[in-house]
Each structure stands twice: as structure tokens, then as C-alpha cells.
Design a protein that fits this description.
The complex is a heterodimer.
Chain A (H helix, E strand, L loop, with lengths): L7 E4 L3 H14 L2 E6 L7 H4 L3 E4 L12 H11 L3 E3 L9 H9 L3 E2 L4 H7 L2 H10 L15 H11 L3 E5 L9 E3 L5 H16 L4 E5 L5 E9 L5 E13 L2 E7 L6 H17 L4 E10 L2 E8 L6 H8 L3 H9 L15 E8 L1 E2 L5 E2 L2 E2 L2 E3 L6 E5 L6 E2 L6 E9 L2 H14 L1 E3 L5 H9 L1 H5 L6 H7 L12 H16 L15 H11 L5
Parallel strand pairs in A: 1-2, 1-4, 2-3, 4-5
Antiparallel strand pairs in A: 6-7, 6-8, 9-10, 9-12, 10-11, 11-14, 12-13, 14-21, 15-16, 17-20, 18-22, 19-21
Helix pairs in contact in A: 4-5, 7-8, 12-13
Chain B lengths: L1 E5 L5 E8 L5 E5 L2 E9 L5 E6 L2 E8 L7 E4 L2 E4 L1 E4 H12 L5 E4 L4 E6 L6 E2 L4 E7 L2 E6 L4 E6 L6 E2 L4 E6 L6
Antiparallel strand pairs in B: 1-2, 1-9, 2-3, 3-4, 4-5, 5-6, 6-7, 7-8, 10-17, 11-13, 11-16, 12-15, 13-14, 15-17
Classes of the chains: A alpha+beta, B mainly beta.
Chain lengths: 507, 175
């Protein structure tokens, strides 16, 4: 047996990704240290860990963002390395540096690479220098509407105005022509000023029917970078990915090779190490660098299924100094799809659906993987994001994977909260998904139209549901007002009162 | 027994359920008739349903017995489900004075507008309050209508889930 890359690791995260990282640690024989907020005391990532260290509050600022407490737990537990998962502190260069300064290994990229990639303009400049194609646009921020207008004339209309310090869709405007520039600049810049304290904007060409295609890379500290193909993530709602697939239905072998080379060059240009994702916009056969995510991503399992690799394991290996050379031998096989199952109610504008998971039936069988920290009794709280599970399938081809995912969504049942499963199922039946002909605007358009895609098996589910509803009422009986104690017997408090009154157990 | 189901889009379905000596049921829905075997599998709301030989994995959840939410093969259906007696009572209530009602917030959010003032007479299904949650505005409506007895919130307030928004007294007796 080979030696595990580390003896003990602290996982500075919660929920699904903490459990995901923990599972690989256990597979490798690494001892695990979990951290938890009070609300997460009963979570699976805590229960399955070797050690668990409490954090004081439920809010992220009192728990999973407390760098001081995370480092203290790492030091006191004797962990040698810290895995940040995704979100929280995963892309925070200060945290990566603090971990390093504490004499521990940060299982992720160097803070210097995060800093370049975390800044839209710096990363764009670095990519231009490295010969990575970028969307035609500005490399320097623009401070006035007049400057923006002149620049747009060079780039070509339509253009997107984006906040230089942006994120989360704030401060973004589509400007169709010169007449719209002044108003759009004023509002977008104002939004950016109030959201980020920086009103500077940059411009780029607006692409026709763009697709979001991203390339997985893995880099070691010896300067070797390997790419593991692309993921197609265009099905989004409000910039949140909903369904992802690997490979992309529009990327052929030649384009894949070119995108892979570009992604490798991007990682090299910033001295990258560990797992990373280079995001591209794909439009009409060409691709352009968008940004690099300097972390393991939510949708990494579809790459793992197609390429037959554990990316988290390789994050640990390269963090311990191993070479990525063995990954060059890997070949992609088949097709994988991921659906993000969120506790949200699609019928109520995707409002978060909070509550207790009262009932749970998970899918299984060939080619099915469920990455989730879900259990019956879990309380879905407002403190953290609403993702309950990642449903992942692998098939020999795209259609087998699609059918498999529909089966998975039909087998699944989550009781107690509303979920996005039904919405995903309808999406998989739509022509746009079946044909693979979709772009980043497709899902929003389909949702606006009601996502009304006919069932393929012709089963009359409404009839079955109606019969079930009537039978359910029938077998439960009708509660009568005159007999409120009903089958469950009287309320225990009433019983206690009667006992007191009678001086004995009532008969 | 006869059950009256109203679908989310307002269609009414009538379902006749009769007990059979073998524990199964004879079910008639429109021109369809089935022998139904409805088996509780976990006591938590999951049922194994056979309609003849057609098999369904069904889950039923309900906050109130007259509004079951049925989940089958990845799809959800919500019905208003009344038995004969409840339907009759509902019809009588519809003709006679309605009960008062309390309108509560279904989600935490912010009150954007209040369309009711004390003393207003509201029709059934009239908009009462506009709530904003997660940047989505939702119109909260009353069910039966009545006379506004209390307005517990004002525009700009933040409300918790379940918090009282508006209380209605039964509508005045028809002259």
C-alpha cells in the first residue's frame, strides 16, 4: 500500500463538499478534522469525521469564515494540511497565505495565482500575454461614458458593460448601440460603486448565443499542467448552474485539443498548482477566456466519471509534491450529467424552501452517483446555500446518460421541502436538451414559457396522483369535530391534567 | 365514498372509492375504473399504489387533510380534496355567512404594499398584501373574503414565515 500524502487534514467547509473531501481522505487513509457551526452539529460531515471542532455561530462570518479559529483548530488537532472545499475561504488568498505562514499546507493554488485570477483586468492582461483568446474588449478600466463610447466603437456593437470589481451579476449591462451608452454606463457604474466601492467598468463584445464551456486542469509544483477536457455548463438560471454535462455536445476533438492547450497555457501563465477550472465562452465555433476558478468546483464529479479519476485525491497528491504526469495517460469514456438538487420552490420564483427533511428516497443503480450530505431529519436552514445534493449519472453515450438521469429524478423523493427535481426532469425532456442545442439564455427562456415538455413514456401521472389523493383521504378517514382526540388518543397534556383531577390514570 | 378533487388549474375530478373485502378498493374516476391496492410502506407518507397492474411509487404529504400534495415519478400534484360531507358543508358555507380568516405570510420577506384597510369588504381571492422575498414580489390573496378587522403590517415591514398579515371577519349578512 502506498503511503497517504498526508497523515491528517482539516476540512474548512461544511455540507456536501466537506463530505466529498472527507470521503477521499478516508479512501486514502488520511485522518480527518471537521469543523462545524451549531446548526451543523448533526451533519454527516461531522459524524463521519475522525475529529470535529466547534465554531461559535451559525452565520458564515461566525463559523466557516473565521480564519483564526480554523487555523487554531488545525494547529491544535495536529493537521498537516487544510482543504478549503469550494465557497467560503476557498478563493481567499489571505487565508491560503495564513495557512502557509502557519507552517501548514493549503490544498489549493498558491495565493499569488488566486490574486491574478481573482482580478478580472489583471487576469485578462495575463491571458492576452499568454496568447489565450479573450473576448474582444478593454484591458484597462474605463471611468467615463465618453471613454466607454469610443472604446465600444473599436470593439464593435453590441457590447457588455461590466463592473471592474464585479461578481454576482451586479453592475452588468448589455448596450445595443451608441444611444444607450450614457444611461447604461451611469446605472451600471452606480450599481458597481454601491456594491463594490469601485465604479470603474470594462467593456467586451457581446457574443451571439454564447455557451459556458469550462476546462478542468490539474497542475503540480514542478510546472506540469494537464487538462481533463471540458464541462458544458450553459444551463443556468440567474448565473447559477442548474444542469451540467461532460463532454459538451458542441465541442469536437479538434476544438477540445485547442481549448485544452489554451487552459494549460492560462494555468502556466499564473504559476498555477492544484485543481482549477478555466471558463470559456463558446460562440459560433470560437472560444474566449472568461475567468479561472481557482478551486475544486461544484460540478467536478462529471469530469471524474468521464475521465475515471478522483480530482480531490489528486489535489492532495500534488499538494504533497507529487507529479501530475500519470494523468496524461487518462482517456475520456462515455458521457456524464449532473443535476443540482436545490431546496427551492420553482412554482414560487425559486424561493428557498426551508424545513425538515421528513422523508427521503435516494436513487441508485448502474452509473448513478449521489454527492450529498442529505439525511432524513436534516433541517434546511437559511444560513447556507440551498443545494441539497448533486445527482450525477454516467452512461456510454449522451442519450443513455440522459435517460439515466430521468430515471434518477423519478426514483428520487425528498419529503418536507420543495426541490428543483421536477423542474430538472422537465428540462431533460425538452427538445433543447435532447438536441444539445442550447446556450446560456435557454433555461431562462424555457422557464418563462413554463417549461412545458411532454412526457416520453405517456404515463398518466395526474390520474394516478388523483386516485392516490382520494385513496389517501379514504384510508385516513375523515377527522370529526366531535371526536378531536381521534386515533392518536388525547393530547398528553390533557391526560396529565385528567390524572391530576382524578387522582388516577383515566379510564 | 365520493371524493371531489380540484386540480391546481381549477379542474374538478370526482373519484368514487369503495372498499373491497380483500382490503383493496374499487375506484372510479370519470370513465375509468380500477381495482386499486394502496399500501402504506413506511408510515411516513410513502405508498405503493397498484391500479390494476400499473404500479406507482407515490408519496403524499399534507399540511391540512384537505390539501394533499402527491408526488409520483418526479412530478408533484396538489389537490383540494373534499369528501361528500365537506363539499356539502362548503356549499352551505358558500351560501351562508363565511368564517373569518387570518392571512399569514407563507415565507419570510418584506411587505411592499398593503391593499386592505380596516373596514374594507374583500371579495374571495382578493389581493391583500404584496410581499417581496429573494427579490421576487408575490401577491398574497384572501381565500373566502370578508370584512377587514385588523391590518397587522405596513409597507416596509419585514415579516417572518407564519406571521399574521391581515385578519378578516365574516362578510356582512346579505340583505
Amino acid at each position: 500500500m502506498s503511503q497517504p500524502p498526508f497523515g491528517k487534514v482539516l476540512i474548512a467547509n461544511r455540507g456536501e463538499i466537506a463530505l466529498r473531501v472527507l470521503r477521499t481522505c478516508r479512501d486514502l487513509g488520511i485522518r480527518t478534522v471537521a469543523v462545524f457551526s451549531p446548526a451543523d452539529r448533526g451533519s454527516l460531515h461531522v459524524r463521519y469525521a475522525d475529529e470535529a471542532w466547534p465554531l461559535p455561530g451559525d452565520a458564515p462570518s461566525d463559523s466557516y469564515l473565521r480564519q483564526d479559529l480554523l487555523l487554531e483548530a488545525a494547529r491544535e488537532s495536529g493537521a498537516e494540511a487544510v482543504h478549503p472545499g469550494y465557497g467560503f475561504l476557498a478563493e481567499n488568498p489571505d487565508f491560503a497565505r495564513a495557512v502557509r505562514d502557519a507552517g501548514l499546507v493549503f490544498v489549493g493554488p498558491p495565493p499569488e495565482a488566486m490574486e491574478v485570477m481573482g482580478d478580472k483586468l489583471r487576469s485578462r492582461r495575463a491571458m492576452l500575454e499568454a496568447g489565450v483568446p479573450v473576448v474582444p474588449g478593454t484591458t484597462e478600466p474605463v471611468a467615463t461614458a465618453e471613454e466607454a463610447l469610443a472604446t465600444a466603437e473599436e470593439i464593435g456593437w453590441p457590447v457588455l458593460l461590466k463592473a471592474s470589481a464585479g461578481g454576482g451579476g451586479k453592475g452588468i449591462r448589455l448596450v445595443a448601440g451608441p444611444d444607450e451608452m450614457e444611461g447604461a454606463f451611469r446605472t451600471a457604474s452606480g450599481e458597481a460603486e454601491s456594491a463594490f466601492g469601485d465604479g470603474r467598468m470594462y467593456l467586451e463584445r457581446f457574443l451571439v448565443r454564447p455557451r459556458h464551456v469550462e476546462v478542468q486542469v490539474m497542475a503540480d509544483r514542478h510546472g506540469e499542467v494537464v487538462h481533463l477536457g471540458e464541462r458544458e455548463c450553459s444551463l443556468q438560471r440567474r448565473h447559477q448552474k442548474v444542469v451540467e454535462e461532460c463532454p459538451s455536445p458542441v465541442v469536437d476533438a479538434e476544438t477540445r485539443a485547442r481549448m485544452g492547450e489554451a487552459a494549460v497555457a492560462a494555468a502556466r501563465a499564473v504559476g498555477y498548482e492544484s485543481a482549477g477550472t478555466v471558463e470559456f465562452l463558446w460562440s459560433e465555433g470560437e472560444f474566449y477566456f472568461l475567468e479561472m476558478n481557482t478551486r475544486i468546483q461544484v460540478e467536478h464529479p462529471i469530469t471524474e466519471e468521464v475521465w475515471g479519476v478522483d480530482l480531490v485525491e489528486w489535489m492532495f497528491r500534488v499538494a504533497a509534491g507529487e507529479s501530475v504526469a500519470p494523468l496524461v495517460e487518462l482517456l475520456p469514456r462515455g458521457h456524464a450529467i449532473e443535476v443540482r438538487l436545490n431546496a427551492e420552490d420553482p412554482d414560487q420564483g425559486f424561493l428557498p424552501s426551508l424545513g425538515r427533511i421528513t422523508d427521503l428516497r435516494l436513487p441508485g443503480g448502474p452509473g448513478v452517483r449521489v454527492d450529498s450530505a442529505l439525511y432524513r431529519g436534516l433541517e434546511v436552514t437559511p444560513y447556507y446555500d440551498s443545494m441539497l445534493a448533486k445527482l450525477v449519472v454516467h452512461g456510454r453515450d449522451r442519450e443513455q446518460a440522459r435517460r439515466r438521469m430521468m430515471r434518477v429524478l423519478q426514483e428520487l423523493h425528498v419529503g418536507g421541502v420543495e426541490t428543483t427535481a421536477g423542474m430538472a426532469l422537465r428540462l431533460l425532456r425538452c427538445d433543447a436538451f435532447r438536441s444539445g442545442d442550447y446556450d446560456t439564455g435557454t433555461l431562462e427562456r424555457l422557464l418563462a414559457e413554463g417549461l412545458d415538455c411532454p412526457r416520453e413514456d405517456g404515463a398518466d401521472l395526474e390520474l394516478a396522483a388523483a386516485v392516490a389523493a382520494a385513496l389517501w383521504r379514504h384510508v385516513r378517514g375523515t377527522p370529526r369535530r366531535s371526536d378531536e382526540e381521534g386515533a392518536a388518543g388525547p393530547d398528553p397534556w390533557v391526560l396529565v391534567h385528567r390524572c391530576r383531577e382524578l387522582g388516577r390514570w383515566p379510564r | 365514498m365520493r371524493y371531489f378533487l380540484t386540480t391546481e388549474d381549477g379542474r374538478e375530478l370526482e373519484v368514487v372509492v369503495e372498499d373491497r373485502p380483500d382490503g383493496r378498493h374499487r375506484v372510479v374516476l370519470g370513465d375509468r375504473e380500477f381495482v386499486a391496492d394502496f399500501r402504506d410502506v413506511d408510515g411516513l407518507g410513502q405508498y405503493a399504489l397498484l391500479l390494476g397492474r400499473a404500479s406507482f411509487a407515490v408519496s403524499v404529504a399534507a399540511d391540512e387533510p384537505q390539501a394533499p400534495r402527491v408526488h409520483v415519478a418526479g412530478e408533484s400534484f396538489v389537490f383540494r380534496a373534499l369528501d361528500e360531507r365537506e363539499r356539502l358543508a362548503g356549499e352551505v358555507a358558500g351560501r351562508g355567512p363565511a368564517r373569518g380568516e387570518e392571512i399569514q405570510a407563507a415565507m419570510p420577506g418584506a411587505v411592499v404594499a398593503v391593499h386592505a384597510a380596516v373596514g374594507d369588504v374583500l371579495e374571495a381571492n382578493a389581493p391583500v398584501v404584496v410581499l417581496e422575498a429573494m427579490k421576487m414580489q408575490n401577491e398574497v390573496r384572501c381565500e373566502h373574503g370578508g370584512v377587514v378587522a385588523e391590518v397587522a403590517v405596513a409597507a416596509g415591514d419585514t415579516v417572518e414565515s407564519g406571521q399574521l398579515l391581515v385578519r378578516l371577519d365574516p362578510p356582512p349578512e346579505d340583505a
